[in-house]
Automatic annotation (TrEMBL):
Gene3D superfamilies for this protein: Transcriptional Coactivator Pc4, Chain A (2.30.31.10)
Single GO cellular component term: nucleus
Keyword tags: DNA-binding, Nucleus, Transcription, Transcription regulation
Protein name per UniProt: Activated RNA polymerase II transcriptional coactivator p15
Length: 110
């Protein structure tokens, strides 16, 4: 038996083959430039500009809230500001822990 296991079409199936399947189109979410505001208007995520092209945003993902600190870049084709790979998303618990050690971090700075 060959390693490629191919199913033979069954005669009792009412399917006419691959032509009757409609491919699911995946839509890419378009990211607009983050708004440097801390207010919520509708579904807009609150965000704060940190300088250069870095932002902090409060986001929800799969029903959980995260604090997202991320670098953004300007898309050369659309000139839109888009989130880059460089960044971190902290859970609320991780964010609370970070807040609790801020003084220690400040004292460790030169």
């Amino acid at each position: 038996m060959p390693k490629d296991k191919k199913r033979a079409p069954s005669s009792d199936s009412d399917s006419s083959g691959p032509d009757d399947r409609v491919p699911v189109k995946k839509s890419k979410p378009t990211a607009s430039a983050p708004k440097p505001s801390a207010s919520r208007r509708g579904d807009e995520e609150p965000s704060w500009h940190l300088g250069k092209e870095r932002y902090v945003k409060v986001r929800e993902f799969k029903g959980k809230t995260y604090i997202d600190i991320r670098e953004y870049y300007t898309d050369k084709n659309t000139m839109d500001l888009k989130p880059g790979k460089k960044g971190i998303s902290l859970s609320c618990e991780q964010y609370q822990k970070l807040k609790s050690i801020i003084d220690d971090i400040d004292h460790a700075l030169p």
